[in-house]
Amino acid sequence: MTIRRRLYDFLCDHLELEELRRICALDLEGGDVVVRDFPGPSASPSEGMWRALDALLRHGVIADEALWDALARARPRCREEIRALRGSLVAGRGAPRRDRAQRVACPPRRRCGDRSRGPAGGRRARAPGRW
Predict the structure, then answer these.
(1) What are the helix (H) ranges across the chain?
(2) Higher pLDDT, 89 or 124
(3) Is the pLDDT reported for residue 17 higher than 80?
(4) From CA 129, how far away is CA 131, in angstroms rounded?
(5) Average pLDDT for residues 47-75, to the nearest whole number?
(6) Contact predicate 67/28, CB 8 Å
(7) End-to-end CA distance of the chain
(8) In this structure, are residues 78 and 14 in contact, taking their beta carbons and an 8 Å threshold?
(9) Which of 91, 98, 126, 131 is 20 to 30 Å apart from 80, CA to CA?
(10) pLDDT in tens, 42-52
(11) According to the model, what pLDDT value does residue 129 have?
(12) Measured distance CA(85)–CA(69) in Å, rounded
């Protein structure tokens, strides 16, 4: 499992997007700039957290010790898990970097409807002008 996926799983399991937004805005220097790249309330929880993680990576906040301290203060029962995530980031290759041209693929989500039968979902589309 990649470090990005481990971070995503931790954030989804322990925080909501608005909580992460508040932590970043209040506890990080320049956090208001990072928070501007977070998705709005219309994003699904999983997509919203993935895009928020992408914003944290893009701005280099993941390597900032202030983020990890703020997460530990927000979730004191998870200090060991937070410390392990931070340790794997330092022991590994550091903060995951990516080129701006490289797109971040969202993790698989459940589909709302079965689109395997075509855009009409298995129903036949009506001919134009016919009711």
Answers:
(1) 3-14, 17-27, 31-36, 45-58, 65-74, 79-91
(2) 89
(3) yes
(4) 7
(5) 92
(6) yes
(7) 52
(8) yes
(9) 98
(10) 889 889 999 99
(11) 63
(12) 12
Cβ of 35: how many Cβ atoms within 10 Å?
19
Contact 67, 95 (CB under 8 A): no
Confidence of residue 14 (pLDDT cuts 50, 70, 90): very high
The answer to whether the beta carbons of residues 39 and 51 sit under 8 Å apart is yes
Indicate if the alpha-carbon torsion angle 3, 9, 11, 13 is positive or negative.
negative
When computed from its CA atoms, the radius of gyration of the chain, rounded to whole angstroms, is 19
Residue 58 pLDDT > 50 = yes
Q: Do the beta carbons of residue 92 and residue 3 sit within 8 Å?
A: yes
Burial of 53 (0-12, 13-18, 19+ CB in 10 A): buried
Q: How far apart are CA 22 and CA 24, in angstroms?
A: 5
- Average pLDDT of the segment spanning 95-115: 42
Q: Degrees (nearest 5) of the Cα angle 74, 50, 59?
A: 75
Other beta carbons less than 10 A from residue 33's beta carbon: 14
Residue linked to tokens 């001919």: 127
Tokens representing residue 4 in the block: 């990005």
Residue type, 95: A
